[in-house]
Amino acid sequence: MREHSPNNRPADEPAAPLLRVENLKTIFHTQKGVARAVDGVSFHILPRETVAIVGESGCGKSVTALSILRLIASPPGLIAEGRMLWGEEDLRKAPPDRMRALRGAEIAMVFQDPTTSLNPVFTIGDQIAETISLHQGLSSIEAREQALHALRRVQIPDPTTRIDQYPHQMSGGMRQRVMIAMALCCYPRLLIADEPTTALDVTVQAQILNLLRQRQEDDGTALLLITHDLGVVAKIAHRVLVMYAGQIVESATTMDLFQRPRHPYTAGLFRSAPRIDTHAPLTPIEGMVPDPVDYPLGCRFHPRCPWAIHRCAIETPPLRVAPNGNSACPHLRACWLAEAHPEGDFSSAPPPASPASSEVRT
Question: Under 8 Å CB-to-CB from 352, ≥6 apart: which residues?
Fold first, then answer.
């Protein structure tokens, strides 16, 4: 079992990114045309850091995660452009044998639905032990002991009994713990968690989040969290990437983003989420995420944006640093209105549709 020691870098030495994603583009060939599911995404993750990716369904969050692990089915999918640097190694160019060795050992993933991710005809102990044997070369007896240890680490009650049970004999929360145990059994340096609390009741959600945070503190694991739940983001994330239509439209520390969203889409997500400190009605974002086969020209959010101006419909805004942000972690946003009015605040209620914005949306 690999041991992780505390980070012993000097306090004033900046950490090198564990993972750097640069201009990632993942496409799918469909009967309707080429779907640009991920279209020019760039970000990094530092050791021991938690980065959350948020956005509506269909924005490219899960495809981004699957691209990092090279789990995109080809055909019809293809990682068309970009680099995914694991240290100095470009995972996009890594041979299949290297990716198989890396998955689970250095980068692990907790998938959204444990019911479809766990094999129903094998016990959970056999499935965890298989991962351990594959990456650590242990005997079946040693791998079973390590699997039992992994179940204890995720606080499975009565692990000596549970290890010989099948997935259908467990609750949804238990199966999710098993998925986390399987992902963490080889002590990866990066854990990707795709909606790890979806379909769980609130008490189990809190237990899973506390578990992830505890394992991160103990093992020094970095976490890439994909979620729709802004409450989960506020509880666990250091930085947030807001994705829309295959692109990152805003990036900031969690505190900066929650205090002052600098993109209309981010502000719309906040207004759509229930809050306990206000009785104001929820305001959904009108419209739907555009079809990745046929994205609109200009800013891809402009057909749904109540602040849209004419430039939004004809020119794509770049991701730029917002003024008065955190110098250590710049606040980035891609919005022409924010460029024209850098002090503008999108967190308030949107203005009534003006003739100009109505014309843009049509």
Answer: 306
d(CA 332, CA 249): 8
Rounded Cα distance between 159 and 149, Å, is: 9
pTM of the model: 0.87
pLDDT at 359: 47
Q: Single out the residue of 233, 210, 253 nearest to residue 55, CA to CA.
A: 233
Query: Same CATH topology for 19-237 and 242-361?
Result: yes
Phi, psi angle pair for 12, to nearest 5°: -95, 5
Among 17, 58, 56, 52, which residue's Cα sits nearest to residue 38? 58
> What CATH class does 242-361 carry?
alpha beta
Q: Which CATH number fits domain 19-237: 1.20.120.450, 3.40.50.300, 3.40.50.1700, 3.40.50.280?
A: 3.40.50.300
Q: What is the pLDDT of residues 285-298, one digit of tens each?
A: 889 999 999 999 99
